[in-house]
Amino acid sequence: MPERIRETEQVLNLDEDESVEHLDNQVQKAQEQLVQLKRQQEQIEKQKRELEELSRRQEQFQHGKTEMIDVFTRALVVLERQIYDAQKRVEQLRSINESFIQHLSIIESINPKGWENSDINKELNRALSAVEDARTEYTRSRAVISAETNEEVLGAASSMGAAGYETEPARDFMYWLKSGFAFTLPLLVLGLILIATLCLLHAR
Length: 204
Hints:
The chain is an all-alpha fold. The protein has helices at 2-13, 16-109, 120-147, 173-203. It has two domains: 1-92; 110-167. 81% of the residues lie in helices and 0% in strands. The longest helix is centred in the N-terminal third of the chain and has 94 residues, at 16-109.
């Protein structure tokens, strides 16, 4: 406070020109300080924005990290199950493939021309048994393969019994009636011809 009073007294003691120049200097200094303070304020605000952006990005990172850890953890559990099922499926298909190769080899190796006359019945029973085993395995494996898909992957085998006879589909009454008429029609025509011939001979 005393210093300010002394400065005021000095100003009053100065002549008019010096007083104006001194005031201009004071104003200029004040303006320079104001500009400097404004720059500092802008710098502080810039640093504040950078810190806010950094904080936002850190929060974004933490949220993304937590989300992806949860997503990958659950996905890995599902994938491990899928891989296990796929490996099990591959092993199952590989086993079926090996079984088909074995049955095909057995069937292709059967050669009736090489059978001895005395062993034909035995060899034929063995051959029929091999074919029936192959058909049973094919039907079972076909059901296993198709169970994992929405369509039939393999075609059905023909319906042949163990004795080698194909099972006939059920026939209705009209079928047998038409069949009987078709079988007896030639006999009826032949009978009519014989009757007509006898009538002609008798008339003579």
